[in-house]
């Protein structure tokens, strides 16, 4: 165990050659610093990239119709798959594991331009017909007013919720937006809310140029009948959308006479699958961080082991005297191991403290300068700190083990004869 005399002895041994001690300790310091910073930067990248998902329903997918690639039941390939409102009810009825099945339609973009006017101002904006639950599937903040409601859906009200760039394009500064009217393809709509995209999974500029109107109103006003352009589908929390999406595809294929083996007729984007891939990528980066940091740390441990071998050689006569006076091999081993352990832990703790300071500075800069794309809140958990401390303890023991064994192999008489 450590006592005052042992502490004094260890400090004197480390102070005997300060430059050598510093350079040896620096290897461990640098290794543990690189390890912690690599993991912090990986977590910062993970937080920044996954922040794009934000409140987005990561257990969701978007599904749209494409052209069939296989002839089926006498029908030729190349047919365009067009969804119907009845498909929505069929999917909901047959797959109870789904939380939301939201039909969508749109105008604008490649389909047209200059389709929204207000007084003398005109703008080309994206028009979406949606259901109220879409706000739970796509992240957005309501700045004024409200989003769409089921009373709007049932009554087919001509109301709309508009994005920030629509406000800029159609309204003067400080002009009242709520309660005003805009005209979409000649149809008047009352503005009941404004929104801002919080975390985007698409084109942020296009989403800011968006107008949401009730789905039923959209189909009636623009003569879409019972057509559905595409769907936003979200599974229940305990069910992965990736696991049930094939059942959704089978229902749609059956209802529209699409060959079961046709993989091209239905286009989709599985957000849950993308989210898992991103998490998997950063898990790999974390492993790489541990591996690279461990290699650098190992070089520092090898340096400590080499230095302790030199120290043992310099103190051979002292060790011989101690053995002659009755010191046991384990007492000699314990002394060398303790010196190695103290040097390793002290330099490692300084490295962890330095890493914490660097991480704090990075977060302060991010807080002061605003968000950085794909990077935020670099940090490490207490679990990482615990792992680092465990590595330090094990490394300290390993670094001193070879020198300690070397110190006890020589007989006391031979040690005393060495000049």
UniProtKB/TrEMBL annotation:
It is found in: Cell membrane. The keyword Plastid does not apply. The chain crosses the membrane at residues 21-41, 287-312, 341-362, 382-402. It is a multi-pass membrane protein. Residues 291-412 form the ABC3 transporter permease C-terminal domain. This is ABC transporter permease. It comes from the Bacteria. Belongs to the ABC-4 integral membrane protein family. Keywords: Cell membrane, Membrane, Transmembrane, Transmembrane helix. Residues 21-248 form the MacB-like periplasmic core domain. Its main location: membrane. It holds the Pfam family FtsX.
């Amino acid at each position: 165990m450590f006592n005052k005399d042992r502490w004094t002895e260890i400090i004197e041994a480390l102070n005997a050659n300060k430059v050598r001690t510093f350079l040896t300790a620096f290897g461990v310091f640098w290794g543990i610093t690189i390890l912690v910073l690599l993991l912090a930067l990986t977590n910062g990248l993970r937080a920044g990239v996954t922040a794009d998902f934000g409140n987005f329903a990561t257990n969701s997918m978007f599904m749209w119709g494409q052209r069939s690639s296989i002839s089926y039941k006498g029908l030729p390939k190349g047919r365009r798959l067009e969804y119907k409102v009845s498909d929505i009810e069929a999917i909901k009825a047959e797959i109870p594991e789904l939380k939301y099945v939201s039909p969508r339609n749109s105008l604008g973009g490649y389909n047209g331009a200059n389709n929204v006017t207000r007084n003398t101002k005109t703008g080309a904006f994206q028009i979406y017909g949606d259901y109220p639950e879409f706000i739970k599937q796509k992240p957005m903040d309501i700045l004024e007013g409200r989003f769409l409601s089921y009373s709007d859906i049932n009554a087919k009200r001509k109301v709309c919720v508009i994005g920030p760039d629509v406000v800029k394009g159609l309204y003067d500064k400080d002009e009242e937006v709520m309660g005003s009217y805009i005209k979409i393809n000649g149809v008047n709509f009352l503005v009941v809310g404004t929104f801002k995209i919080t975390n985007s999974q698409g084109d942020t500029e296009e989403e800011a140029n968006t107008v949401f109107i009730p789905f039923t109103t959209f189909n009636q006003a623009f003569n879409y009948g019972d057509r559905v352009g595409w769907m936003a589908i979200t599974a229940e929390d305990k069910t992965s959308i990736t696991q049930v999406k094939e059942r959704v595809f089978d229902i749609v294929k059956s209802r529209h006479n699409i060959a079961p083996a046709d993989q091209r007729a239905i286009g989709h984007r599985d957000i849950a699958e993308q989210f898992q891939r991103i998490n998997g990528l950063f898990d790999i980066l974390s492993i790489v961080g541990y591996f690279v940091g461990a290699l650098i740390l190992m070089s520092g441990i090898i340096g400590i082991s080499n230095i302790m071998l030199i120290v043992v050689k310099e103190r051979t006569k002292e060790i011989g005297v101690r053995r002659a006076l009755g010191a046991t091999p384990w007492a000699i081993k314990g002394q060398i191991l303790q010196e190695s352990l103290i040097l390793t832990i002290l330099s490692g703790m300084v490295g962890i403290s330095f890493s914490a300071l660097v991480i704090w500075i990075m977060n302060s800069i991010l807080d002061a300068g605003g968000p950085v794309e794909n990077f935020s809140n670099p940090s490490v958990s207490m679990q990482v700190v615990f792992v680092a401390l465990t590595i330090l303890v094990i490394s300290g023991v390993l670094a001193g083990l070879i020198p300690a064994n070397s110190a006890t192999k020589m007989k006391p008489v031979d040690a005393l004869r060495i000049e």
